[in-house]
Design goal:
homodimer, mainly alpha, DNA-binding
DNA sequence: GCGCCGATTGACTGGTCAATCAATGGAGGT
DNA sequence: ACCTCCATTGATTGACCAGTCAATCGGCGC
């Protein structure tokens, strides 16, 4: 008989933290909330993590490194810059579809919290922008995109637009049922790429 | 002789708060920091404001209502949807140029902090998105914009792109000297509008 | 059985601040 | 001179919570 899973407490705590952070926000979350949600004693959180910050840290690093890989992958795999950006957008939208709570935490507490927690991760975040900028840059070199838009500007606009849409769903500014994620992604990619291509 | 200005302490406190919030972030700011920066006793902050939150509240309301007016104005004054969106972008970029510290506070602590403080103001924030969406909607009706992009999506993408660029400057992700604000605005508006127009 | 050691527990402490409030100052009015 | 009113002061209080730590548990080798 397969032994019961070793009940990885560390993972248990991380997953509980996602739920609590998503529900109450990082600042309003007490360490005891995480422990309660995980069904674990208060002190155990400090056995696995050195601080409350480090819990969020870990969550961010885990996911952001996946994004960085996905962008590289899109750059290598897809043929046209439009398809590359499409693949990046797909990855991000799918991440949200698959685990909205985690994405909410990443976006709200790290990516868009550059003044508090996100400051620590400015470097990693910038790396994503730069990878996207590289896609645009190559697209300009090949003539697929026009050359008068600075790649970093295009990249930040592209990513900013995606994040704003996700935020809209997260906070109910845009009704979630209204439009399918895939449709939203197609519209976004189409619009941005049409804007980036030569007239 | 003109009497010395009445040294409006309330204003003094608000302006000091902007500086301190911009420097340290809202959460890391103690009320005593605001009082010190304003050169005023601790208790006086509570004479004019009922809480630390209300100070930020006031700063946000003051500025956001100006934005709402500016959008209405752009809609009424400009002729084409492209010019309307251009005017909106100009207002936002100029706000940043004129008072970067205040804009930093608004964006970082309210607009992009929808989980903590911004939650209170979701309604006002959404109103701005909707006004921009209306511009897009009219543009579609007149045939200037193509009809297959939901106006609210276009609006959020547009605003999200702007805010992301401002964030880039605020946190040094984009070197500020690199490009002139006006040029950045032109590129952004051109790109987005090209993407929104019929091919 | 016994002893070792990492996992687990949760009561406690120390420090931090938001908010209160009683006291003071000083500008008009009479 | 005296009084009233409100701006202004800053010491104090009370709540809150991150992080510590001494105690217990339980699996495993011998």
């Amino acid at each position: 008989m397969a032994q019961a899973p070793p009940a990885d407490k560390r993972r248990l705590i991380l997953d509980a933290a996602v739920r609590v952070f998503a529900r109450q926000g990082f600042h309003a979350t007490r360490v005891s909330d995480i422990a309660d949600e995980a069904g674990v004693a208060y002190g155990l959180v400090y056995h696995y993590f050195s601080s409350k910050d480090e819990v969020l840290n870990e969550l961010f690093i885990e996911r952001w490194s996946l994004l960085l890989v996905a962008i590289e992958e899109a750059d290598k795999t897809a043929a046209t810059p439009r398809e590359k950006l499409g693949a990046v957008a797909t990855f991000i939208f799918d991440s949200y579809r698959h685990d909205p709570e985690l994405m909410k935490v990443i976006i709200v507490e790290v990516t868009r919290a550059a003044n508090s927690f996100g400051r620590t991760h400015l470097e990693e975040i910038r790396r994503a922008y730069e990878s996207i900028a590289k896609i645009v840059d190559d697209g300009q070199a090949s003539g697929d995109f026009r050359g008068d838009v600075a790649p970093m500007f295009a990249s930040m606009s592209f990513y900013g637009a995606i994040e704003q849409l996700l935020s809209g769903w997260i906070f109910g500014t845009i009704p979630a049922s209204d439009t399918d994620f895939d449709q939203a992604r197609d519209l976004l990619v189409t619009t941005i790429c049409d804007g980036l291509e030569p007239r």
